[in-house]
Amino acid sequence: MVAFLHAERADRSIREPPTGAGRRGQSGIGIVEALVALTVLLIGLVAVISVGVAVRDQTNRAAARTAQVVAAQQVLERLHNDAGPPAAAALHTVAVGPARLEVVSTAVELAPGLYEARVAVGSHGLAGAMEIVTRLARPAE
Predict the structure, then answer these.
(1) 92, exposed or middle or buried, with CB in 10 Å at 0-12, 13-18, 19+?
(2) Among 47, 63, 71, 105, which residue has the fewest nearby CB atoms (within 10 Å)?
(3) How far apart, in whole angstroms, are the C-alpha atoms of residue 23 and residue 29?
(4) Where are the beta strands (DSSP E) in the chain?
(5) What is the rounded end-to-end Cα distance, in angstroms, of the chain?
(6) pLDDT digits (tens, 9 = 90+) for 64-104
(7) Which residues does residue 118 pair with via DSSP β-bridges, in sequence order?
(8) What is the spatial distance between Cα 117 and Cα 110, in angstroms, rounded to a whole number?
(9) Gap between the Cα atoms of 95 and 74, Å rounded
(10) Minimal CA–CA distance to 102: which of 78, 76, 128, 72?
């Protein structure tokens, strides 16, 4: 029985980690590991913030472009619904939500009763200026 206990102690010593000079009783994480983890975390945080800023900018640009399209559409509908030949040039102020946009329309007669209308909307917010060209048919007088 003594030999059995002695063999069990020897077997246990193989499984237990050494506690001498090879392993200095280290517990937890070291400063290098903490700095690496912090650096990776900061890089990820900067990436997430930059994506959020880009999304916000694109949303603002899309909203400004939508306001321009709505303003141009309103002026084109006015030109289309008006009787008689369109004015050679006109300045329209269109309210789209909280924004007031200035829209310039010009019309050139291509043939009797056929006009080319150009509607230009100035830059609004982050969106650049835009121009729409269409043709209008009017009965000849």
Answers:
(1) middle
(2) 47
(3) 14
(4) 89-96, 99-111, 114-121, 130-137
(5) 125
(6) 888 889 999 999 888 888 877 788 888 888 888 877 888 99
(7) 106, 133
(8) 10
(9) 10
(10) 72
